[in-house]
Amino acid sequence: MNxxxxxxxxxxxxxxxxxxxxxPRKSPASSDENARKLLxxxxxxxxxxxxxxxxxxxxxxxxxxxxxxKLESTKAEFKDTILPRAKLKxxxxxxxxxxxxxxxxxxxxxxxxxxxxxxxxxxxAESGQKDKASEIFSQAxxxxxxxxxxxxxxxxxxxxxxxxxxxxEKGKASEIFSQAxxxxxxxxxxxxxxxxxxxxxxxxxxxxxxDKASEIFSxxxxxxxxxxxxxxxxxxxxxKPEKEVARDQTSNAADTTTENAPPRPPPPSxxxxxxxxxxxxxxxxxxxxxxxxxxxxxTRKAMALAMIAxxxxxxxxxxxxxxxxxxxxxxxxxxxxxxRIARKCLRAGHKDKASEILPQAHRAAQKxxxxxxxxxxxxxxxxxxxxxxxxxxxxxxxxxxxxxxxxTSALASIAESLSKAGQKEEALELLSQAYSVAETAEDFxxxxxxxxxxxGYAAVGQYDQAVRVAQRIQKGRGRGDSIRIxxxxxxxxxxxxxxxxxxxxxxxxxxLSLRVAETIKYRGHKANALASIASVYAQLxxxxxxxxxxxxxxxxxxxxxxxxxRADTLSDIARKLIHAGKYRQAxxxxxxxxxxxxxxxxxxxxxxxxAEDGExxxxxxxxxxxxxxxxxxxxxANIAGKLAQAGRYLEALRIAKKIERRAWKAAALxxxxxxxxxxxxxxxxxxxxxxxxxxxxxx
Length: 699
Known about the structure:
The chain is mainly alpha-helical. It has helices spanning 3-18, 28-52, 57-70, 77-94, 96-105, 110-126, 130-145, 150-166, 170-185, 190-206, 210-225, 242-249, 290-293, 297-314, 318-326, 331-347, 351-366, 371-387, 391-399, 404-420, 424-438, 446-459, 463-471, 482-499, 503-517, 523-539, 543-558, 563-579, 583-592, 597-612, 616-623, 629-645, 649-658, 662-679, 685-698.
């Protein structure tokens, strides 16, 4: 307890004790003397309580209660001010969940404090403590009300509302949702209003209120439509469809310091897609990121519509999602959004709905002006029709594709869907056609076209034919990374063999991949190829070979003299290993990366994945290299929760103590408290000591 608070307590005691003088008495002198004695004794006890707080809030509480007992016959000022706080700290010393509440109350930003409190309230509701949950929810709403920015306030209120739904208080949730909408409607910027309304709508969908969600999505569309078109601002080129981005990624730049490096293909269009895709950041601090402020109204409108379409599809409101996509003015953006919605329908098993959307996507693809970009969109449309089982329509679209590379890709993907449908002979016939078309592709794209066909043959179980086609990949004019594509093609075939259970064939093909990879000239490509081979060896459970290949990949990467290229290569390898589920190996790679934002991001993801897999010590090791404060705090909170679930409570609390950001510290303590409650475990002496130190830190 700090000194000013002590002075306040003593002053409070003085008021209480001397208040006795106003009561009727026979001997004023005697009464004054008794009051002074009471004050002196109570003050002594308070000072002792202050000393006791250094080691035990429970002991301090006993002393505070004795101080109150000295003045039991007087007014209740002391009991109503000092004692409640002392009791809270004593409880927090015994319970991580109670400690989480104290920490959450100390969070500076009202919006973050409100969200932290609502999460804690939910945990109390889950354990049947309805009254306590209600009390904490009230605190959360009070904090939300202090959020000055309507954008943040609306999102925070929507989050609190959904927590009420989870706690079974649907009536209260409805009331808070209304408050969120009121805040959203106050937002003057239509772009921001559209984003917030869409976020509130998805929360209604999560609550099972689809009709209300639909209504609010409609309001979001109106706001997006109202974004005024005017000159000025930065126009971002249309975001590319999924396959178009994939095509760009097949042409990674070679080592910039290597002589006679292959020419770069046209770079991917700059895009801000993903900034608001499905999740709004914790807090905007009252302003947009600078790059968003510079965007033209037409680009902001396109981004708002894309997000609304995405969230509508997430909510299963495909008709509304399609409506948002159709409002896009640029054919490329329109196709991209429609293709995403159709893909979402297919993943959710709604083939009938996908079949309704695909013709619209096809028409948008046909309207793209640029020939190559139009063909890539048609390629993706054909693939989606194939996934939907409409092979005849998929083939009709493939027949309209002019570019040989795009046509090859379409035919190969249709063949794969035919094979999955049990039509293997038709699939093989189509792959034969795809191979013939691939041979006519331009030199720049021919290696990738042949790689598509080889993977197609592997997918239908024709491994030898897949290898023969991959062998046809040669270094062509202007395609310096064709050898890397060949090595990757063999690795892809080996991976398919592995998934099919043919480990012997997989090992045989991997040896071919390695032989080709060793001839790659450009270090970045070589390192990536070796990392791909290492991933497949890991899938084959050939740990020694996997470790050897990874070591070779890292040795090659370290030889890149350009630091940016080296960082990109190591980042690519780390992501590849994360995707393969090889988190320890990914950690090894990430540690070698220079201190760039990508390193913190990779380490944070690795830490979370390791914690989820029960590799808690390795997860903690990963966090040590994270430089971004928010990502470090989030990763530590996740690890603490996982440790508590594993019964390692003391270690979990040690991790929670390390977290500097209070909102995440509260989250860690909340999850630790929930784990204690679930196991009916009592807090031990060592844990109490840690909780005590956490409480003292926030005073």
